[in-house]
Every structure is written in structure tokens, then in C-alpha cells.
């Protein structure tokens, strides 16, 4: 059993990029992947084995998995990290835009999980780490599309654990809070592309809370990706990995409030976040 092989999606920047390099430097055989060829070339130039992988393309997933498991090679772990944010009030989010959010964040995650599980069933073991969010635990306004996609991941993973309970295949959910990356910047680009804010009921709120918001990377809640990588390592190397890993103070705080407060009181707090 080779416990040092892992496929990581969404390695163009942020958590995926940092995790791929950290694991590579610490003895793992890392198969890094990204959707854009230019990002894959950069990863390769930096010494990683990298592949173009669009999680919304089932045939692309099949081809990459066949490549990395050829000649009997096994795959110990998958880190399903690819995803993006689509801000905007739900009344300003069209169904087609919501579907785009789900295609990557949820359906793409499931397709890669679905195909990888066939490999792990044959092997008799494996670890699948699913990147969820604090917004898979609680909801914030103007994050409805993203909230819904991450809540869906929670239900998927909770069910998978029940169905895999008699195996040596472990499903771990990573609930990240705010991490320094390009996530916010890219989310604003998606907002500008897909949301008609002029004339919206929330037009003024968008300007204050999204478009004119100061960079939050220096606040006490935003952390570097090392806090997530620490939990990824535990999920990979522990004999009994946790079903769920909370990352950052924001996740612990809001997750705790979700457990103890009545919904009406919790929502009065969340609307101010």
C-alpha cells in the first residue's frame, strides 16, 4: 500500500497550490491539477507532476485517473479542492448561474468522487478529502449560491461515510473559514459578470459590502493556508481520520453558535457578519 500518493484539484492558487507543494516537499507523490493549461505548465515548471483537469468534464476526469493509475499504480488519496464563489442575493441569481456554481462545486466534486471510489474499492482502501466551508455549516446573505453548493457537499459526505463504514475508505470534510488567496478577488469578478446590481433592491448594500469592501486579508479571522494543510496531513496520516475538520476561528465560532443558539437568534447575528 502506497500511502503517499494524492490527486489534488484546483492547484492554480491558494490552498490547492500550497498543499500540492507542501506535500511534494514532504515525500508525497502529488498529482496536481488545474483547469487552465497555463497554470498546469507553471506547476510542472515548479517541479510538480501536473495535469489539465476540468472537474465538470467526466471524460477528462476518466482520462486523468487512467493515466495516474496505469501500470497498476494505486491512488491513496484525493483532495477535492476545486471550487469558486458566486456572490449575489438569491433574487439576483438566475437559475443558469446557480447551475454553474453547482457544476463545479458540487457535481464536479461528485463526479471525481464517483470515479475515484471505483479505484479505491478495487484497492480496498483510500482517503477522500472534500473541501467544504464554514458556509456549509452556516449561511451568510449574498452567498446563497455558494452556501447551497457547500451544504450539498455536507449531505453528500455524511451519506458516503455511512455507505463506506465497513471499508477502509475514509471520507473527510474540510470546513475552511477565510483563507488568504485569490478567492475573494475571483468572486467579485463573478459577481460583476453574472449579477445585475443596478436597480437591485440590494444595490447600495452591494456597493458597501462587496464592491467597496476593504481587503480583509489582515483581519483576525483570515489565516494562511497552513492551518488547512495541518488538517489535511492529519486526514492523510491518522489511523482514524476525523469525519470533519474545522479550520480557523471563524469556523469554530460560527459552527459552535449553530449548535447552541436558536435559529432566530443565530440569524440576527449572521445578518450582521
First-to-last CA distance: 46 Å
How would you sum up the global shape?
A: globular
**CATH class descriptor name:** Alpha Beta
List low-confidence stretches: none
Computed structural class: alpha/beta
Extended strand count: 7
Give the strand order of the largest sheet, numbering strands 1, 2, ... along the chain. 3-2-1-4-5-6-7
Largest sheet: 7 strands, parallel
Compute the CA-based radius of gyration.
19 Å
Helix content: 40-55%
- The count of domains is 1
CATH superfamily: NAD(P)-binding Rossmann-like Domain
CATH architecture term: 3-Layer(aba) Sandwich
**CATH topology value:** Rossmann fold
Tell me the β content: 5-15%
Topology order in helix (H) and strand (E) letters: EHEHEHEHEHEHHHEHH
Mean pLDDT: 94
Give me the number of helical elements. 10
How would you characterize this protein structure?
- The model has no long low-confidence stretch (mean pLDDT 94).
- This protein has one domain (5-270): NAD(P)-binding Rossmann-like Domain (Rossmann fold, 3-Layer(aba) Sandwich).
- 49% of the residues lie in helices and 12% in strands.
- It has ten helices and seven strands.
- By secondary structure, the chain is α/β, with parallel strands linked by helices.
- It has a seven-stranded parallel beta sheet, with helices on both faces.
- Helix 5 (144-163) links the parallel strand 5 (126-131) and strand 6 (169-175).
Amino acid at each position: 500500500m502506497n500511502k503517499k500518493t494524492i490527486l489534488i484539484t484546483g492547484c492554480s492558487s491558494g490552498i490547492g497550490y500550497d498543499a500540492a507543494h507542501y506535500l511534494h516537499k514532504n515525500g508525497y507523490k502529488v498529482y496536481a491539477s488545474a483547469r487552465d493549461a497555463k497554470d498546469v505548465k507553471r506547476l510542472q515548471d515548479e517541479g510538480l507532476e501536473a495535469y489539465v483537469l476540468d472537474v465538470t468534464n467526466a471524460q477528462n476526469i476518466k482520462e486523468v485517473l487512467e493515466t495516474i493509475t496505469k501500470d497498476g499504480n494505486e491512488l491513496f488519496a484525493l483532495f477535492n479542492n476545486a471550487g469558486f464563489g458566486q456572490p449575489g442575493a438569491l433574487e439576483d441569481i438566475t437559475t443558469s448561474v446557480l447551475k454553474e456554481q453547482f457544476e463545479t462545486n458540487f457535481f464536479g466534486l461528485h463526479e471525481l468522487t464517483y470515479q475515484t471510489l471505483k479505484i479505491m474499492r478495487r484497492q480496498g482502501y483510500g482517503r477522500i478529502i472534500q473541501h467544504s466551508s464554514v458556509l456549509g455549516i452556516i449561511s451568510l446573505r449574498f452567498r446563497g449560491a455558494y452556501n447551497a453548493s457547500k451544504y450539498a457537499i455536507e449531505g453528500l459526505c455524511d451519506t458516503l461515510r455511512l455507505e463506506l463504514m465497513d471499508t477502509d475508505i475514509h471520507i473527510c470534510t474540510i470546513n475552511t473559514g477565510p483563507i488568504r488567496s485569490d478567492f475573494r478577488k475571483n468572486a467579485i469578478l463573478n459577481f460583476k459578470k453574472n449579477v445585475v446590481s443596478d436597480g437591485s433592491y440590494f444595490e447600495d448594500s452591494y456597493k458597501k459590502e462587496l464592491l467597496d469592501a476593504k481587503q480583509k486579508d489582515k483581519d483576525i479571522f483570515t489565516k494562511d493556508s497552513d492551518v488547512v494543510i495541518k488538517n489535511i496531513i492529519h486526514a492523510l496520516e491518522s489511523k482514524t481520520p476525523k469525519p470533519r475538520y474545522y479550520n480557523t476561528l471563524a469556523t469554530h465560532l460560527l459552527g459552535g453558535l449553530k449548535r447552541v443558539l436558536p435559529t432566530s437568534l443565530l440569524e440576527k447575528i449572521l445578518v450582521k457578519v
